[in-house]
Every structure is written in C-alpha cells, then in structure tokens.
C-alpha cells in the first residue's frame, strides 16, 4: 500500500484535497487584475514572484456560490502543463497523509461538483476529504484560452 500527501483546502464547509506534488506554493489572497473576455471563473491575473499568472476561482468553476475574500482566503499556486496557475480557495488548512486503503472511489452523488474532477474520497478520522485532480478541472480548450489571455 502506498501513502500520498495532500494539501487540504475548503470551499464553503466542504474539505477538498489535492496531491501535494502538484502544489508549488500557497500564498495569501491578493487582489487580481481583471481581464476582459476571460472565462467567468477566471478572477484575473497577479504578479507572482515576477511571473504573471492567472487566478481561477474554484468555487465559480464548480458552480458554487462565491464569497468575499477574507483573512483565510488563499491562492494555491500549481504547475499545470509547465505553466503556473493560481486556484482561489476559501481556506488552505493543512497537509495530510492518506494511505490508499483510506481512499474510496468517487460516490455517484457529490453535491455541487462535477464527478469528473474527483479522484476519490479520503477518510481521515471522522473527516471526509474530496480528492480532486486539478489537471481535470480545466478542459484543454479552457487551458488554451487562459494561456492566451492578454492584459
């Protein structure tokens, strides 16, 4: 059995996890610059360590109601197809280790999020952590649109 490490974050009251190997950094929320003609779920762009990166609001992407950013709001910066993208989340709380035996397949019904993004559900004590694959969150067409955003 293998064990993987996940970054746990919240969207609303639900906890989600992504493989830590995909995460470059977690940073405090900063206001982004809006881009005309960007997809609705793209908040804008920020300057991240000298690089301009797009910010995707995961709540909007998943069809959930957004919320105003506060002191807990974080941007999870990941490397996706050799480019950096920031994912806006309500809170990034911790990293956890999950053994494969503690991960169940995706149930038929998960409220508020398309099953194609989900790789499984992790069980940790009394908590359920919905594991998502950030590479599946954006279609190839959407990735291309984001790559071509002009300031």
TrEMBL record:
It comes from the Bacteria. GO terms for cellular component: cytosol. It holds the Pfam family CheW. Gene3D superfamilies: CheA-289, Domain 4, SH3 Domains. It comes from Proteiniborus ethanoligenes. GO terms for biological process: chemotaxis; signal transduction. CDD domains: CheW. Residues 3-143 form the CheW-like domain. This is Purine-binding chemotaxis protein CheW. InterPro entries: CheW, CheW-like_dom_sf, CheW-lke_dom. SMART domains: CheW. The lineage of its organism: Bacteria, Bacillati, Bacillota, Clostridia, Eubacteriales. SUPFAM superfamilies: CheW-like (SSF50341).
């Amino acid at each position: 059995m293998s064990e993987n490490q996940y970054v746990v974050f919240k969207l609303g009251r639900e906890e989600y996890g992504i493989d830590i190997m995909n995460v470059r950094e977690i940073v405090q929320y900063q206001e982004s610059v809006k881009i005309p003609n960007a997809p609705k779920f793209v908040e804008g762009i920020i300057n991240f360590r000298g690089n301009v990166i797009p910010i995707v609001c995961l709540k909007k992407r998943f069809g959930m109601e957004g919320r105003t950013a506060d002191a807990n709001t974080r941007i999870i910066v990941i490397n996706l197809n050799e480019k950096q993208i920031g994912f806006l989340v309500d809170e990034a709380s911790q990293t956890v280790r999950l053994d494969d035996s503690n991960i169940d397949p995706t149930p038929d019904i998960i409220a508020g999020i398309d099953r194609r993004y989900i790789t499984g559900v992790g069980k940790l004590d009394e908590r359920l952590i919905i594991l998502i694959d950030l590479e599946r969150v954006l279609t190839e067409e959407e990735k291309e649109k984001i790559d071509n955003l002009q300031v």
